[in-house]
Amino acid sequence: MRVLAWLCGLLLLAAGVASQFGWRLPNAWNPWAALDVRQPPNLLTPYKLSRLRNDPGLCRQALETSELRYKAQADSPASANCPLQDVWRIEQGQARLSSSFLASCPLAVAYALFEVHGLQPAAQRIFGQPVAQVEHLGSFACRNVYHRKQGRPSQHATANALDISGFRLQNGERIVLARDWQGDGDKARFLREVRQAACESFNTVLGPDYNAAHHNHFHLDMGHWQVCR
To answer: Fewer CB atoms near the end CB (10 Å): N or C, the chain?
Structure first.
């Protein structure tokens, strides 16, 4: 985290100096440029994703570079137990979804990055075909972590997390975490590559190796913790 903060500071300084001479940093390395989903993630991506949380205009710019099909959702009342603000309904990406899901802007854009630069390339490398459908267990749930009565709210409580349980390839073959994570075949290899690729886009990635509660899904969120397990 210190290295990332140092790098962002250096790039901000470089961008300021360059502007004095009429120069421009490439958008991928310009901290102030909108995030472009078509460009591979780099060291600035977490910073750019964090800027989307409270900037609807910047969020829309990033979403427009993606292949997501999405709709803006009305904010919920501030009196709600788990109020939602600046949330989008994601209906489809490059692959179909088992159902649409609600997502904060950082989660939506991180999902688009993951699909384009992680998920689909892994499927092509290992199976020679794309993922046609992503199966998930949901995103928004007004609850605390692990459904405890006391404790901190889950990232799901703000639609800032998504749980993915499996994938369906173009030929109809299914890959399911609960069944296929263990082993050393192509399906297990694919799931491990997907887990690692997810860590390039999401802040927190938890899978079957983390604990028994995640034996059947990848938990992906855009909270403050940087975890890849």
So the answer is: N
Rg value, the chain, Cα: 18
Task: For residue 136, give the amino acid letter.
Answer: H
Taking 60 as the threshold, does the pLDDT of residue 18 lie above it?
no
8 A C-beta contact, residue 164 and residue 218: yes
Nearest to 207 by CA among 198, 174, 168: 198
Q: Which residues pair with 90 in a beta bridge?
A: 70, 101
Residue 9, both tokens: 């500071």
Q: How far apart are CA 63 and CA 59, in angstroms?
A: 6
* Tens-place pLDDT, residues 149-176: 777 889 999 999 999 999 999 999 999 9
To the question of pTM greater than 0.90 for the whole model, the response is no
Mean pLDDT score across all residues of the chain: 90
Q: What is the DSSP string of the chain?
A: -HHHHHHHHHHHHHHHHHHHTT----GGG-TTSPP-TTSPP-TTHHHHHHHTTT-HHHHHHHHHTS--EEEE-PPPPTTSSS---SEEEEEESSSEESS-EEEEHHHHHHHHHHIIIIIHHHHHHHHSS-EEEEEEEES----BGGG-SSSPBPGGGGT-EEEEEEEEETTS-EEEHHHHSSSSSHHHHHHHHHHHHHTTT-SEEE-TTT-GGGTT-EEEE-SS--EE-
